Amino acid sequence: MSVANNRSNSIPFLDLITPHVELEQELTEVFRKALQTAGFIGGPMVEDFEAAFASFCGTSYSVAVGSGTDALRFALTAGGVKPGDVVVTVPNTFIATTEAISQAGALPEFVDVDERTYNLDPARLAEYLANQCTVNDEGRLVSRRSSRFVTAVLPVHLYGQMADMDPILDLAERYRLTVIEDACQAHGAEYFSQKHNRWMKAGSIGRAAAFSFYPGKNLGACGEAGAVTSNDASIAEKIKMLRDHGQAKKYYHDMEGYNGRLDAIQAGLLRVKLPHLAKWNAQRRERAAEYNRLLQSAEDAVVVPYEPSWSRAVYHLYVVRTAAREGLMNHLKTAAIGTGIHYPIPLHLQKAYAEMHHQTGDFPIAEKVAKEIVSLPMFPKLTAEQQKRVVLEILNFSSRVLKKNAEGERALSLADRTA
Question: Taking the domains of the chain in order of start, what are their residue ranges?
């Protein structure tokens, strides 16, 4: 294939252009409205989006903020996490999860993940709470590792699939912990709760939840944006103050806060996109099902995502696993197919957390997965033909590796016979 043909036949990892071109007239109208009303911060566009997003998530409240990191930090603070506390989360997530914990004045402590879903493993959470913590005379849970109070659990709904929430909530109730959902990658994902006997949306199960609207998310702004959802009025009110310098009303500050407000233009753009989200999520699920079907013939080469019966994932990312990751990614790059790794180094092994003194082997599942994961192209307008070519190149690479291995084994066998 020539270089020119290769470029024209390229398959991007993510397509951010098509949806904006399709909605260009409506999106442009948002900017015109802002210019004509000078409504740039707060106001009707923000309030309209907040109401619509709360309805979408099945919650009573939604508070729009400046970013997903703001959403996480504000949700933790409003949820009762205090400086010096411990918040339990997973090591295989984007650093914003733990940045928010640290910025709330707390300390992240990690629990390993389920190898199939890559989400917080309730069994390992139970082991951590029972064996790595103790209960003091006041009935408060204390981490043996840090001697700090453990007050919250922050499960991450990674790649668009929800964590197993019922057992997590049961443990939280038993140990008097607050559950805050990191739903930054899970807009519209659903979980079937046996406890409530119904499907529940991401963001509606914990005491509060954080969403990111970074441009590449299933619902993405044209810049930074985030939101917190909750059914707790006190949390919503506190976040409204936290995002606006702690103001209960203009120039009356009940607390120190932050500049975490969402621009009205971004809220307006999100409001235009929100009615399309269910369709876009359905298209992602269709593309994931097609990948699963096509990759059946490549089961020796890659492990496809696992979706439990209690999950309706929205495939923010379609992540496979392979022992030959670097070779596969290089092969796909040569074929002009975009890929990614989410995420290559678990947080407990990052330089940013060197002072926590974790070692390789502390969280073996997260470490194993981090060495094998590859994110394939995934976006609503990905075509079946593009997927066929992605899988064809995976099969081509796999057959080449198998042939090379077989030749190596024959060479070793010959050497043994002639030795």
Answer: 3-14+277-401, 18-276
